[in-house]
Design brief:
With 405 residues, this protein is an alpha+beta fold. The protein has 16 helices and 11 strands.
């Protein structure tokens, strides 16, 4: 431990980020910063100093002013049988959580789904969006821009600009929205196996530089909240964002009664009054029971940006009778995720992706991310089915008393 550097960090002579430049390695810089913070706050941070990721990589790509890591318990649910276009077979589901009862509940749902023949799932749309806002010189110019971005000629020029920034991304379309002289351009990209927010941002900047040369406009902000990234928004539910995915399972009546201790009619009523009427009365964007629980647990385990749980929770859970059996579905309009970039390269997260068979880029490109979307959607369905079963059988409080304390 370089005591001189620690003292300078404590005194403020060196700023926290300058530890990287003064230490012999980034790992040492992490240790020096942690020791300085420990002394400044009179706190024992020894457990935060225990981690397995490579600081030489993580502190360049994933975090600044690193002092260590916070550990989240990781549980496993499954096997869960999935019958998707990309995810086919039995999967064990990694769930990083501190909520007792969650893994047990999802595990029960996985068992019910597998006993019923598995979850059928499909990715219906695959695109990441970024929406710059510009101020046009006149209303006429705003209209001209809105009309022009729909033409094949300008679209090809914009796609060429995008190709200068990435070998993987592709501009799919541009949707204009005019508010006075403000024009919001919602650009949609195919980002292959990446979640793609950084890719879309850099590509959008290139498109805007092109448009500034062709129109009387001024770029106000590269992100305008029409994307919409990490915030509740109806546009994501209507238009979709990330991997738009739908999962369903047909649970035989006998299995519902034996495994969930309720009838299909009971689950349909709970879903109707809770997820539909209750959500409508609350004006909620989430017409589901607890999709965010599973999405968050899998995102943390698999190196996704946890803030995208906001969009991932915009799901609609549906339950209906099908010849006396239970047809159960969960639809995800906006499920942003990827298998390359971000936190997917960290050691423990990479292992979870490997466990699911989706680590790194897929062949063909984009297939691994779509496979992960199918798995997340299917696991979320299992969680929904189990929780609604617990509610229908009046068993929720007992389960939480057993597992959650």
């Amino acid at each position: 431990m370089n005591e001189d550097i620690v003292k300078k960090l404590v005194s403020g002579e060196l700023k926290l980020h300058q530890a990287d430049d003064n230490a012999t390695s980034r790992r040492e810089a992490v240790d020096l910063r942690r020791e300085a913070i420990s002394r400044l706050t009179h706190t024992d941070l020894s457990n935060i100093g225990k981690y397995s990721f490579d600081p030489e990589v993580a502190t360049r790509k994933n975090v600044e002013n690193a002092i260590g890591a916070v550990q989240v318990p990781l549980g496993i649910a499954g096997p869960l049988r999935i019958n998707g276009d990309y995810a086919r077979g039995d999967f064990y589901i990694p769930l990083a959580t501190t909520e007792g009862a969650l893994v047990a509940s999802v595990n029960r749902g996985c068992s019910v789904c597998t006993q019923s023949g598995g979850v059928n799932v499909a990715v219906l749309q695959d695109e990441m969006t970024r929406a710059p806002v510009v101020k046009a010189g006149s209303l006429a110019e705003a209209r001209r821009l809105a009309e022009a971005v729909k033409t094949p000629e300008l679209m090809e020029e914009m796609r060429a600009a995008v190709r200068t920034t990435t070998r993987h991304g592709e501009l799919l379309r541009v949707d204009p929205y005019v508010v006075g002289r403000s024009v919001f351009l919602r650009l949609a990209f195919d980002t292959k196996d990446a979640m793609g927010m950084n890719m879309a941002t850099i590509a959008s900047d290139a498109v805007m530089r092109l448009l500034e040369k062709k129109f009387d406009l001024r770029l106000v902000a590269l992100s305008s909240n029409m994307c919409t990234d990490k915030k509740p928004a109806a546009i994501n539910i209507i238009e979709g964002r990330g991997r738009t995915t739908v999962a369903e399972v047909l649970v035989p009546r006998k299995v519902v009664i034996e495994r969930l201790k309720a009838t299909p009619e009971d689950l349909c009523e709970v879903n109707y009054r809770k997820n539909f009427l209750g959500s409508a009365r609350a004006v909620s964007f989430g017409f589901n029971a607890h999709v965010a629980n599973v999405v968050a647990a899998m995102y943390i385990a698999c190196g996704q940006d946890p803030a995208h749980v906001v969009e991932g929770s915009n799901a609609i859970t549906s339950a209906e009778l099908h010849d006396g059996d239970l047809l159960f579905t969960v639809s995800f309009p906006s499920l942003p995720l990827g298998t390359v970039g971000g936190g997917t390269g960290l050691a423990t997260q990479s292992e979870c992706l490997s466990l699911l068979g989706v680590r790194g880029g897929g062949d063909p490109p984009g297939s691994n991310a779509r496979k992960l979307a199918e798995i997340v959607a299917s696991a979320s369905l299992a969680g929904e089915l189990s929780l609604l079963g617990a509610l229908a059988s009046q068993d929720l409080a007992r389960a939480h008393a057993k597992y959650g304390r």
